[in-house]
């Protein structure tokens, strides 16, 4: 059960475009660039490593995605605990350093095993930035502006996918240089550390001596565990869309009889271009409605409609129509930062970073389970049937989770979990 903090936190800054918001947004920009880059260079990088058979490219690509997402599962726990024990800033910049170095090393790989291990290490690094950034923004902006702050972080951040597409596919610089550039951008971002300060709420919770970052405590209290699991479920549909429908866009394009070749890179580009507008819209709508839950419910309904269009409404369509649907589909799942904001607002200061970091990474890591189930169901049900089953289950569970969580808009955050 939450209880009031013994001391009042330092009054938060009133400026929406504070250094914390700007650094968190740029950090998420580089995070998304590195996170999505593999989906863009998957085919060409595997071909260059000697994997050319169509089925092998699909299967080994899924294996590498699972390694990256598995790393994010591990990193989510690691960085989340450190965020509540050591501080939000340590995680924000430590995670950027790790994934930057891993991505530079990724540009030198010569074997599939090297590729896999470096995707795992990069995944661990990629797990920390968003949760730490959102937690800092939530704890340092006034409650009336939190939604706008996290909206800025998400809107700037997801546009990193468009840069990843241009560098990875449109520039002609090659997939190895694309990894080098991602790592270099992350290292360059570290110089901004001097302009960011630690959360006042965290500092005073630290001084109070309250136990912090106890990940296992999420599982020792029934209502707390229920809140946590519901937070996880909200993010799964987005990663079903990105990890299955968009990453495997060439395979779905062939199955649907799209009249021309479908590029995974362009699918990612248009989906994330939609995500930019979706994150802006979902954050704004949640503020105007004064409700996180109603905004999330609206976007889940829209996502359900667009998934149906993607799977059943495009047979024989042109590539341009296919990419247009990818764009709108991306817009409907543009509630990522809103989801992380809800997770942060549901828990006290001594567990907030743990939840805000593990929740999105467990949701991202659900791709491991989703791809396993997708392949399991694909044999009896086919590509479209397998995707349909996963879409129905993930969307229904997310809608139930949102509908049963307490509303968190305007909630005071200066309390701890007992």
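^ Assign residues to that structure.
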């Amino acid at each position: 059960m939450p209880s009031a903090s013994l001391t009042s936190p330092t009054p938060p800054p009133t400026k929406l475009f504070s250094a914390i918001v700007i650094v968190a947004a740029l950090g998420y920009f580089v995070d998304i660039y590195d996170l999505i880059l593999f989906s863009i260079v998957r085919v060409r990088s595997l071909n260059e490593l000697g994997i050319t058979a169509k089925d092998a490219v699909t299967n080994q690509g899924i294996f590498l995605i699972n390694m990256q997402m598995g790393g994010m599962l591990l990193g989510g726990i690691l960085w989340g605990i450190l965020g509540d024990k050591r501080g939000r800033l340590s995680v924000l910049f430590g995670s950027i350093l790790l994934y930057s170095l891993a991505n530079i090393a990724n540009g030198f790989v010569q074997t599939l095993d090297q590729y896999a291990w470096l995707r795992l290490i990069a995944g661990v690094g990629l797990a920390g930035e968003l949760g730490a950034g959102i937690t800092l923004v939530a704890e340092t902006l006034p409650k009336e502006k939190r939604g706008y702050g996290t909206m800025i972080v998400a809107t700037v951040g997801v546009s990193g996918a468009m840069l990843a597409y241009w560098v990875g596919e449109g520039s002609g610089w090659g997939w190895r240089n694309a990894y080098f550039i991602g790592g270099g951008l992350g290292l360059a971002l570290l110089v901004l550390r001097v302009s960011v300060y630690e959360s006042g709420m965290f500092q005073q919770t630290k001084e109070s001596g309250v136990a912090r970052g106890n990940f296992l405590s999420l599982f020792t209290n029934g209502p707390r565990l229920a809140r946590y699991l519901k937070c996880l479920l909200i993010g799964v549909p987005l990663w079903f869309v990105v990890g299955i429908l968009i990453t495997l866009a060439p395979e779905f394009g062939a199955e649907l009889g799209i009249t021309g070749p479908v590029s995974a890179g362009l699918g990612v580009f248009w989906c994330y271009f939609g995500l930019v507008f979706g994150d802006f819209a979902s954050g704004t709508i949640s503020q105007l409605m004064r409700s996180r839950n109603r905004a999330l419910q609206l976007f889940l309904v829209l996502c359900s409609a667009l998934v149906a269009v993607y799977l059943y409404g495009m047979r024989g369509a042109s590539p341009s129509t296919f990419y247009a649907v990818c764009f709108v589909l991306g817009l409907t799942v543009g509630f990522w930062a809103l989801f992380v904001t809800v997770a942060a607002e549901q828990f006290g200061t001594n567990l907030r970073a743990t939840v805000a970091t593990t929740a999105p990474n467990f949701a991202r890591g659900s791709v491991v389970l989703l791809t396993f189930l997708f392949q399991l169901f694909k044999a009896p049900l086919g590509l479209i049937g397998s995707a349909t089953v996963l879409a129905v289950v993930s969307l229904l569970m997310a809608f139930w989770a949102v509908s049963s969580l307490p509303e968190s808009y305007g909630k005071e955050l200066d309390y701890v979990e007992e």
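Confidence is low (pLDDT under 50) at residues 1-10.
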